[in-house]
Amino acid sequence: MMHQSLSSYLWISTALFAIGLYGLLARRNLVAVLISLELILNSAGLNFVAFNRFALVDKSSGQVFMIFIVALAAAEVCIGLSLILLLYRRTDSIDTERAKELNG
Amino acid sequence: MTVPDGFFLLAAGLVLGGAVLAVSLENVFYNALALMLSLFGVAMLFIFLNAEFLAVIEVIIYIGAISIAILFAIMLSQPMLSRREVPSAAKLFRAGAAAALVFLGLQRAIGTARWHQAPVDGDYGIDGIGKALLGPNVLPFEAVSLVLLVAIIGALVLAADPKERASK
Fold this sequence. Notes:
The complex is a heterodimer.
Chain A: H1 6-26, H2 30-54, H3 61-91
Helix pairs in contact in A: 1-2, 2-3
Chain B: H1 3-24, H2 28-48, H3 52-76, H4 79-82, H5 89-112, H6 126-134, H7 138-159, H8 162-167
C-alpha cells in the first residue's frame, strides 16, 4: 500500500524541495524566485503533516505547524510582492542580477 | 494496484509535474498557474494524510489567496509578461547539480533512518487543532497574528505611490 507508508510521502516532499531549490538558484525573475520559495515551504509542510500521521501520538501538533507555515507564507508573499512592485517601479526590471543597488 | 494507490500516484504526479512546470516554463504567468496545479496536488495528499482541514486551508489560502496575489502582481507590471529570460547554461548546470546533491543526500538520510512509529488512529479533527492552537500553542498563535498585521501595514506603506505620498 503505497499511500500508507511514510517513505513515499518523504520521497515526494524531498523531490519537491529539490525542484524548489533548483528554481531558487536557476531563475532570475524575482516572482519566479518567490514561486520556488512557495514550493519549498510546501515540501516542509508536507513533511510535518506526514510525520503527524505516522510518527506522532497527538494528531494535532503537526497540523498546527502547517497552519503556522501557511500564515507566515501569506505574510511573506504580501511583503515580497509589494517589494517587487516597488523595485519594478524604480528600476523597470525585476531581474535579480540587475538589482544590485537597493538604496533609494 | 488498488484504487487509493492510483489516486495517490495521481496526486504525486500533480505535485511534482506542477512543480517542474512552475520552475521550468519561461513565462512567469504560466509559472504561477503551474504553482496552483502543484498546490492542488499537495491538498490531495493532505486528504490522504487524514488532514481534511489542512486540505481546505491549502485550497482557500494558498490557491485562492497567495497564488491569486502573485497573478495580480504579474499582471500589474505588464512588461513582465512579455520579457524573456536568457538562461546561462553554467548557472542552470550549477543549480541542477546543487538540487541533485541535496535530493540524493536527503534520500540517503531517509533510507538509513529508523523512524519511531506511532499508531495511525487518533483525533485529526478541528476540535483537536483548535484546542492545540489556543492551549499549548497560544503564544506562537498570537505572534503569527501580529506578524500578519505588521505585514499588511508594511505592504500598504511600501506599495503606496511615492508621488502621492510626497504631495501630502
